[in-house]
Design goal:
The complex is a heterodimer of chains A (261) and B (236).
Chain A lengths: L15 E15 L2 E13 L2 E5 L6 H8 L7 E6 L2 E2 L5 H8 L1 E4 L11 H11 L5 H14 L15 H13 L5 E5 L7 H16 L3 E5 L3 H7 L2 E6 L2 E6 L1 H6 L4 H11 L2
Parallel strand pairs in A: 3-8, 3-9, 6-7, 7-8
Antiparallel strand pairs in A: 1-2, 1-4, 4-5, 9-10
Helix pairs in contact in A: 3-4, 3-5, 4-5, 5-6
Chain B lengths: L1 H5 L1 H34 L3 H16 L2 H14 L12 H4 L9 H27 L2 H9 L4 H31 L12 H11 L4 H34 L1
Helix pairs in contact in B: 2-3, 2-6, 2-8, 2-9, 2-10, 3-6, 4-6, 6-8, 7-8, 8-10, 9-10
Classes of the chains: A alpha/beta (261), B mainly alpha (236).
The structure holds adenosine-5'-triphosphate and magnesium ion.
The site of magnesium ion (MG) has 4 residues of chain A, from helix 1.
GO molecular function, one term (chain A): ATP binding
Keywords (chain A): Amino-acid transport, ATP-binding, Cell membrane, Membrane, Nucleotide-binding, Transport
InterPro entries (chain A): AAA+_ATPase, ABC_ATPase_HisP-typ, ABC_transporter-like_ATP-bd, ABC_transporter-like_CS, MetN_ABC_transporter-like, P-loop_NTPase
Chain lengths: 261, 236
């Protein structure tokens, strides 16, 4: 089913040999619903992979399986050459190396933006609070919201909250970042500011798996586009190739729907 | 009504002892109840079972029976609950330290019984925290314990505080049973003494005892109303 391009020779991405993320024969059921069907995927270091597909096709589940927020039923997932550990300390350590950005931001509501960003470094990485704070401020500057550091999440706009969430994930100095529809909960005028941050991350060589319907981002920042439908990876191609020339009917149909408005 | 004036010291002493009992039992109930709530949501199945069994037993047994087990069961098992003779604590709550164990038994019974209700109030507070909060905490690598401590519980407290207050008010009222299980000199035992031993008239004595309880429960109730009203305004 999966049509994969062997080497990755696209979009100015700098990618190297050994995959950082690797899924082999992954299956996942929700009760009778087979949401991931024999999924094989590898993501190289520095690679940016955009996942698109119709609602309910299993994109979020795929994304969440990678840091085991969603356990799988069969198959293997390896991250940085290690299979995902079972629930416990080792899994917590692995999760700290994989940043995750959610559709609904999920900033800690009772903590300021700065505290949101320093919690992980201080509690998980045992960094000195002062050092964590300095680094957090730099990250907040990088995403353009340093002046909001002392506010609570509810006091920020959606776009600012999502940028704070990205800073929180980056504070763990992750080896890869997972984004699950990071801009779909945003008002249109705020989408750009979040995509800009993501694009700059991609340029800096971050390994990223991004579930999104932002085709502009897919074209400009991705090395590969994966099209999912009904729990299967239907296509796996370079963005130019995919958008110009989708091979499957499902993908053609999907693209015609989202590109016409 | 002269009994209220003549024996003011008895009422005041009874109030003070009941107050101490309530402070200690409430502290114990909050600690045990939080622990049981954490067990009930823990990823380890046996801990969940223990937590559920605890709540099932203590929430569904009459307090009188729990008091009975503490006052007669513990001595039968050879325990005088000496672990509660905590140095330092006994200098503030002197009854904790004395040889007669019934005050300690009452603290234990009241705390264990109330803990089941505390657990359920906290659990409902935990359920009110959006699941995305815990998920984000897991995603940055916090362990189960850190997640609870830094992310989930601080937010759960907020929605649990009003139901918790109601639990504590119920506990204060329940503490009246202590005087019937060997505790000497609390509000209810003082009332018994005044009426049966000293032959004071029943109605004024019990009015005095009621005032003693109301002095504790009414301010707590007003405080809860305040908190609730402030929440309602903030939510608007
Ligand atoms: N916790 C769950 N329990 C049961 N079914 C679930 C659960 N989570 C997701 N599903 C189902 O699994 C399927 C795949 O869900 P998933 O969220 O991965 O899709 P998606 O591609 O991300 O969709 P969307 O674009 O709407 O976000 C859907 O049919 C969904 O209803
Ligand atoms: Mg989704």
């Amino acid at each position: 089913m999966t049509e994969r391009t062997e080497a990755v020779e696209v979009a100015g991405g700098t990618t190297t040999g050994e995959p950082l993320i690797r899924l082999d024969g992954v299956n996942k059921w929700f009760g009778p619903l087979h949401v991931l069907q024999d999924v094989n995927l590898s993501v190289a270091r520095g690679e940016v992979v955009v996942v698109i597909g119709p609602s309910g096709s299993g994109k979020s589940t795929l994304c969440r399986a990678i840091n085991r927020l969603e356990p799988i039923n069969s198959g293997t997932i390896t991250f940085d050459d290690r299979p995902l550990p079972a629930e416990g300390k080792a899994l917590a350590r692995l999760r700290s190396e994989v940043g995750m950005v959610f559709q609904s931001f999920n900033l800690f509501a009772h903590k300021t933006i700065l505290e949101n960003v320093t919690l992980g470094p201080v509690k998980v990485r045992k960094e000195k609070p002062a050092a964590a704070r300095d680094r957090a401020m730099k990250l907040l500057e990088r995403v353009g919201i340093a002046n909001q550091a002392e506010k609570y999440p509810a006091q920020l706009s959606g776009g600012q909250q999502q940028r704070a969430a990205i800073a929180r994930a980056l504070a763990m100095q992750p080896k890869a970042m997972l984004f699950d529809e990071p801009t779909s909960a945003l008002d249109p005028e705020m989408v750009g500011e979040v995509l800009d941050v993501m694009t700059s991350l991609a340029r800096d060589g971050m390994t990223m798996v991004v579930v999104t319907h932002e085709m502009g981002f897919a074209r400009h920042a991705a090395n590969r586009v994966i099209f999912m439908a009904d729990g299967q990876l239907v296509e796996d191609a370079a963005p130019d190739e995919f958008f110009a020339n989708p091979r499957s009917e499902r993908a053609k149909d999907f693209l015609s729907k989202i590109l016409t408005h | 009504m002269s009994v209220l004036v003549d024996h003011f010291d008895v009422f005041a002493g009874g109030f003070w002892l009941t107050f101490q009992l309530c402070i200690l039992a409430a502290t114990g109930a909050l600690l045990v109840g939080t622990l049981v709530a954490v067990m009930r949501i823990s990823p380890v199945p046996p801990l969940r079972w223990i937590g559920t069994a605890y709540v099932t037993v203590f929430r569904n047994s009459p307090l009188t029976i729990v008091m009975f087990f503490a006052a007669f069961g513990l001595p039968a098992l050879g325990s005088n609950a000496d672990f509660l003779r905590i140095p330092g604590l006994t200098s503030i709550f002197s009854r904790l330290g004395i040889d007669l164990p019934y005050f300690r038994f009452a603290v234990i019974a009241l705390a264990l019984y109330t803990a089941a209700f505390v657990c359920e109030a906290i659990r409902s507070g935990i359920n009110a925290v959006p699941p995305g909060q815990a998920e984000a905490a897991r995603a940055i690598g916090l362990t189960f314990g850190q997640n609870l401590r830094y992310v989930v519980l601080p937010q759960a407290w907020k929605s649990a505080v009003v139901p918790l207050g109601s639990v504590i008010i119920a506990m204060i009222k329940n503490s009246a049973l202590a005087g019937f299980f060997g505790v000497i000199g609390d509000l209810s035992n003082s009332a018994q003494n005044l009426t049966s031993a000293l032959g004071e008239p029943i109605i004024p004595v019990f009015i005095g005892v009621s005032i003693g309880f109301l002095v504790m429960t009414v301010p707590l109730g007003i405080l809860l109303d305040r908190i609730e009203r402030r929440r309602a305004v903030a939510a608007r």
